[in-house]
Amino acid sequence: MATMASTLSERPPDVKDVNIVWLTAGLGCDGDTVSVTNAEQPSIEDVILGAIPGLPRAHPHNPVLAKEVGDEFMEYFYRAERGELDPYVFVVEGSIPNETIKAEGYWAAQGTDPRTGDFADEYGSPKCLVKIGCWGPVVNCNVTKRGWMRCVGGRPNVGGICIACTMPGFLDKFMPFMDEPPGSRFSVGAVGLYGGMIRALSGITNNTVNKEPKWRHPGPRLTTGYRPRTY
Predict the structure, then answer these.
(1) Cβ burial, residue 157 (10 Å; 0-12/13-18/19+)
(2) What is the pLDDT of residues 58-92, one digit of tens each?
């Protein structure tokens, strides 16, 4: 005869699936997340797969563990805010800073507010920095979304401008670093109404500077003008 304990453990959970919206942007070091990945009783794999009797299957949306990046990852947080991610548990990892006692800048943040695509006039701001020389909108580097290491870091993430250091034309094509990129004033003024046109202009800039020199290509034929004498 089955015991009462075993009967209760085999009972299906009232909630089959639960979303865990996990914020690691507090004043911490991701240590809680790392500890979870090392857990054994139960393991994170068992919790995610729903292998623990009586417990719902968990869907953690954690920036360290997620395969999604950027806007795709942040969509879970926006859906939770709109009441579209039901049920969910909100987890804040790390200490919560008091943003009202700082003189400038910010201490902890994650993602951007789509209701406020706002431009900064000084360094250290969480707003878009294109007006003060940031090349972020036109370079093929997602470090501002994924961070340098485990979703942490990146100059624009801490209020500094992107200087296009991952681009093939760096550094000659992007100097001087502190000046506004060509066309930035126009793009800032028109971005609200002419988003498609701005994307096209960004594409022109991208196609102009984001490519190797013509002579650097695969294949045996040299196009640099050099003529070797051995063949």
Answers:
(1) middle
(2) 999 998 888 887 778 889 999 998 899 889 999 98
- CATH number of the structural domain spanning residue 45: 3.40.50.700
**CA nearest 111: which of 84, 145, 143, 136?**
145
3-state secondary structure (DSSP) of residue 201: helix
Torsions phi, psi of 119, nearest 5? -115, 140
pTM of the model: 0.48
Work out the end-to-end distance of the chain between its first and last CA atoms, rounded to an integer number of angstroms: 88
Taking residues 119-145, report their average pLDDT: 73
Q: Which residue has the higher pLDDT, 125 or 88?
A: 88
Residue 2 in tokens = 């089955």
Residue 15 has pLDDT above 90, yes or no: no
Q: What pLDDT, in 10s, does the model give residues 177-212? A: 666 666 666 665 665 555 566 667 777 777 777 777
Q: Is the dihedral of CA 53, 54, 58, 64 positive or negative?
A: negative
If asked whether residues 75 and 125 sit together in one domain, one would say no
The number of folded domains in the chain is 2
Q: Pick from 96, 120, 141: which residue ends a domain?
A: 96
SS percent in the chain: helix, strand, coil, step 5: 30, 10, 60
Q: What residue spans of 142-194 are helical by DSSP H?
A: 143-146, 184-190
